[in-house]
Amino acid sequence: MIKGIGIDITEIKRIQEMLQKHPQFVSKILTPAEKKQYEQLGGPRALEYLAGRWSLKESFSKAYGTGIGSAVGFQDIEIVDNELGAPVVTKAPFEGRVHASVSHTAVNVITEILLEETND
Q1: Contact between 87 and 56 (Cβ < 8 Å)
Q2: Which domains does the chain have, with CATH numbers?
Q3: Is 58 labelled as part of a ligand binding site?
Q4: How confident is the prediction along the chain (120 residues), in pLDDT tens digits per residue?
Q5: Catalytic choice (3, 13, 91, 104)
Q6: Quick check: 41 and 16 in contact, CB under 8 A?
Q7: Is 62 an annotated catalytic residue?
Q8: One of 3, 13, 62, 91 is an active-site residue; which one?
Q9: How far apart are the first and last CA of the chain?
Q10: Is 76 annotated as a binding residue?
């Protein structure tokens, strides 16, 4: 049964501006495993990855019904790319299945999270 759906759209330029203003931004948003993947990327791809993780975590918090804040923080959710490049949620405050999707243009990243309750 579907427990929640969340979507988000983020301007990549906005993430770039936050990164330039706040050097600790990467460590605030990314878990160590995500940061490891981020550091293996370069140029525009690294920025797309960072914006994608921001947006995916925003989408998760919307699907979860709390928004990012005191109930769910950026470090409470971990989403890494599998060997095919698909985002996989490896840590989250939800017991069921979490489906994640991310897409981007040169300007925007859009994400969707679907929370599915399982009976196994």
Answers
A1: yes
A2: 2-116 (3.90.470.20)
A3: yes
A4: 999 999 999 999 999 999 999 989 999 999 999 999 999 998 899 999 999 999 999 999 999 999 888 789 999 999 999 999 999 999 999 999 999 999 999 999 999 999 999 876
A5: 104
A6: no
A7: yes
A8: 62
A9: 12
A10: no
